[in-house]
Amino acid sequence: MLYFLRMAGPTILIIEDDESLCELLSIALKISGYESVVANDGIQAMTMARQIKPALILLDFMFPAGGGASAHKRLRMLVDTKHIPILILTATSEDVVAKALDMDGNTYYLAKPYKREMLLSLIKQILS
Question: Where in the chain are the domains?
Answer without folding.
Answer: 11-127
